[in-house]
Specification:
This protein has three helices and five strands, in the order ααβββαββ. It is of the alpha+beta class. It has two domains: 38 residues, no CATH class; 76 residues.
Amino acid sequence: MNLSGVSRFLSGLIKQIGLRVTARGALRLPLLVLVPVLMQACASSSPVVESGNAGQYTLHASAAGGSVAWARSHKAVMQSASDFCAQRGEVPSVVSESSTGVRALESHQAQLTFECHPRF
């Protein structure tokens, strides 16, 4: 989710729950409660690059901390690989995948090396 998406999400949420923001920071406590929710909504992946091995590609993804950030980073790399191969009319095949970051409130990283193969 990009910064403008987060901003729209917060604006809509504030309107839905009827909170009013004042210059003195009346939303400090509610925003502190929202930070973990917002962190769980964000995952981003890098562009696909050739890995150096013929026909293999690599990409990275990261997700902000939370109890299942590793799953969001995994989903981001798998979705990016699928989209990349789909543009070629093919499907991805995983060569290797690794991840780092397993604790809450720590950035979780996933690295995927994959190939594209024809659909059967």
